[in-house]
């Protein structure tokens, strides 16, 4: 196995055992970037020289008996909303073309302290305001969408162009591209991972989290990222531990909620079949399946957009007036339209969010996790704007992809997307595991148990 094909856990263990050099690993990933990037366009910036210097320093530190941390020498990509000192943060937008970060974001600083090596900044749908990342191609089919807005991060991980990456998620932007590219994506509990130094889309919905090859890898990264930072007003002083799951696949006594409404409505039959097979696998591992009723579903879409749109518009108010021509048309239209949203609608959405959180808390008293599709359909062709369901319902692609992921952002609960197979066209399918606030250890345990019953996943066959 070539170094770029290794999972994060395998690479970290090999480096600690001195069976793999950080220099060899970083060189392998950089070579892979050079090979696949012309086909995928996952990166805004590749920091090759900086990465090679950091790899040599990591190797020297090991030689002198001073490894930096659990991610020592492991290559990563960071979504280009995340500040790294001295590196451009463009948000994949001409609006930020000349911006260079003066200091590390909280998450970049924690990853650096843990020894991770930055190989580049990955593409986002402009300012994270979209679900497709149009400049980036799906790792499994170049003619299809990558998903967004963390499309570059998911494609980089799926293709071997990063050992792991970070994304952000305001309505599904970690989990959607993870599902569409066959990798793992974790949106943590709101407030668990600090957002200081991360460009905002919607402050009350924004999360930062890992995109990885395996659930174990996601747990390793979360253990580094989680923890209070007073510079983020939403950051919570919650207890943080080692989230890395064990090798036990036994789920006896665990209650898995299976939605009887919402999550399996207007879902592609192949997606539903794959997710239900995965849920049955959890039952085979000892979990007890419990039907649950998802509350307040009629308010999900309205609440999501009534929160996100005004907050995004407020963030961009100055540049939207001074340099509107530098925005892509789809994002500019959304930002301008949001200025017409009445304050009363925003306040009603906040009230709806409060009620939804209360109802979800009651539901999660009855089960330990909820299992459902991550997205209703696999990756659509890049030029497709709508999906028509068998009953004649027409749904826009953005609404399609955000529909099943938005509840976790509105309520703030943690959500993990795990690959559970492919459709007949060979495109990846994801299952979403949702848990109680700060229940990351539980959803990671369930996802890891499922993963251990499946053959090891291969990288996307890009070239």
Q: Based on helices, strands and strand pairing, what is the structural class?
A: alpha/beta
The helix/strand series, from N terminus to C terminus, equals HHEHEHEHEHEEHEHEHHHHEEEHHEEH
Query: Biggest β-sheet, characterized?
Result: 11 strands, mixed
Categorize the overall geometry. Answer: globular
Return Rg in Å: 20 Å
Total E-strand runs: 13
What percent of residues are in strands? 5-15%
Helix content: 25-40%
CATH homologous superfamily classification: Amidase signature (AS) domain
Per CATH, the architecture is Alpha-Beta Complex
**CATH fold descriptor:** Amidase signature (AS) enzymes
User: DSSP helix count?
Assistant: 15
* Overall number of domains: 1
Strand order of the largest sheet: 1-3-2-4-6-5-12-13-9-7-8
Tell me the span between the first and last alpha carbons: 17 Å
Mean pLDDT: 96
CATH first level: which class? Alpha Beta
Uncertain residue ranges: none
Features of the shown structure:
single chain; 463 residues; 15 helices; 38% helix; 15% strand; alpha/beta; Amidase signature (AS) enzymes; 13 strands; two-stranded antiparallel sheet
